[in-house]
Amino acid sequence: MKKIVVLTGAGMSVESGLRTFRDYDGLWEEFPVKDVATHDGWLRDPELVTNFYNMLRHKCLNAKPNKGHELVAKLEEHYKVVVVTQNVDNLHEQAGSTKVVHLHGELMKVCSSIDPYDSRYIQTLTPDNLDVKVGTKAGDGSLLRPHIVFFQEAVPMLETAARECADADIFIIIGTSLVVYPAAGLVHYVPRHVPIYLIDPADVNLDIGGRVEHLKMGASKGMEELYKRLVVGD
What we know:
Blueprint: E1 3-8, H1 27-30, H2 33-36, H3 39-44, H4 46-61, H5 67-74, E2 80-85, H6 91-95, E3 100-102, E4 105-112, E5 123-124, E6 144-148, H7 158-166, E7 170-174, E8 196-199, E9 212-215, H8 219-232
Parallel strand pairs: 1-2, 1-7, 2-3, 7-8, 8-9
Antiparallel strand pairs: 4-5, 4-6
């Protein structure tokens, strides 16, 4: 069975009602990245950061997978599929994708401040218990923090993602401008003979030769078109 690796960014979830961070009217316009998404910001004002992610969880709770998410999951009926996502929402999982690599963490989880990847202290929050009370501590005595990879921190799942990309037979990019590193560099791990499909309504500067086909559409419409080619057309 051929393997498809799907790399998704914020544009994947826009049709589900989740605002992007970087675009016009994005969340960074209202909440400066240095305050709520950096390691220094966390150390400086954990109350602000805790409340920001509490707010995001409530917004995410009301979001549902769109047709794009659903079709990515449906590809598993015909291919081995790995989703590598820069998004912190869980919409891919809700849609039915069974293998999702979260590069930047998971919004619905909280963890230790000393070692965010110590599985003993990672907790998954539930819809009826989304808010972390400021000052709550993890099992190791440190402040409970969002299970998010802040700017200034390493991306622990990057090596895993790179291995998956290097093993792809088909590579799909959805809803990302490919300007955020190190995630943007994953495309360079894809073998040279592998076809690459880019789904994004905007122009994207992807300088890796002529093997990229750009479908200038949103996530849902683009995946409908690509699904027909990859499955119905077989």
